[in-house]
Amino acid sequence: MIKISHSVFALPFALAAMALAMREEGGWSWRVFSWVVFCAVMARTAAMAQNRLADSKLDAENPRTAGRAIPAKRVSKPFVLGLVVVSSGLFVFGASMLNEACLQMSPVVLFVLLFYPYTKRVSSLCHVWLGIALGLAPLGAWVAVRGWRGGFLTPVVLGVAVTLWTAGFDVIYACQDFEADRKQRLHSIPARFGLSGALRISTLMHVACVALLAWLGWANPHLGWLYGAGVGVGAMVLWQEHKMVAPDDLSRLGVAFLNLNAAFAAVVGGAAFVDALWVVS
Q1: Does the reported pTM lie above 0.90?
Q2: Phi and psi dihedrals of 59, rounded to 5?
Q3: 246 pairs with which residues across the strands?
Q4: Is 238 in contact with 206 (CB distance < 8 Å)?
Q5: How far is CA 227 from CA 64, 114, 127, 216, in A?
Q6: Distance from CA of residue 36 to its chain's centroid?
């Protein structure tokens, strides 16, 4: 039901923000690194379990998702609820092990993560809410190192870029369910604007994402040629993603969603992390 590989989307950007914050502080900390990874995995586990729990009835009515763990009765709702509670508690504990600022931030992060499944019931901007959920990762990792001591331009720009990237690929992912969403009276950009309109909106989001990432490389003195190359490769990955989907052909959507977006996160976030790591090690 929950795959460790799902953490690959936000984690590289969290680690990038963490390393850049350590660059500002002037030193590497294995302790902070370990707790940031722990918090990222616990947050993802809580969010994914809550998503499956909240959507279990909807999933059962949708042929594409009827085979998921809860509708297929491979796991029980009480078990999944327990997983949400335990992973949320561990996330808060991990935040407390970092610093007071992270502990203060943790309830806000949990609210964003756990409320996401309900946004599709009220607004087609649900994709942006999901983007914010992932976009909080760089900010949280920055705060894990620096607390509330200011200098938030880097994590905020990185967080907005992650928000746009996530919302863009989630719009693509939602295209496969636009008919089911309309039938179930759920809100999504494909259900509202149709497949062609949704793919155009996704393209605009990803163009804005790449523009912000490129600007960050210019504005932050601790990001060099490796990060610039990573953004360039990432832009090509997103371009390929959009080439693989069309309003009349969604057959390769699964590859476009998982493989290419995992590659984007690994390349761009990884390049930023390594660029900063050379300095802070």
Answers
A1: yes
A2: -60, -40
A3: 249
A4: yes
A5: 38, 32, 27, 10
A6: 15
117-127 CB burial, b ≥16 within 10 A, e <16: bebbeeebbbb
Under a CB-based contact definition with an 8 Å cutoff, are residues 94 and 42 in contact?
A: yes
Centre a 10 Å sphere on the Cβ of residue 179 and count the other Cβ atoms it contains: 13
Query: Could you read off the pLDDT of 78-119 as tens digits, one per residue?
Result: 999 999 999 999 999 999 999 999 999 999 999 999 999 999
Helix axes 77-98, 30-54, angle to 10 degrees: 150
DSSP 7-20: GGTTHHHHHHHHHH
Residue with tokens 């936000």: 10
15-40 pLDDT, tens digit per residue, is 999 999 999 887 899 999 999 999 99
* Virtual torsion, Cα 101, 104, 106, 109, nearest 10 deg: -100
Q: What is the DSSP string of 77-114?
A: HHHHHHHHHHHHHHHHHHHHHH-HHHHHHHHHHHHHHH
Max distance between CA atoms of the chain, in angstroms, equals: 55
Residue with tokens 């393209």: 203
- Residue 56's Cβ-count burial label (10 Å; 0-12, 13-18, 19+) is middle
- As a whole number of angstroms, the distance between CA 102 and CA 131 comes to 20
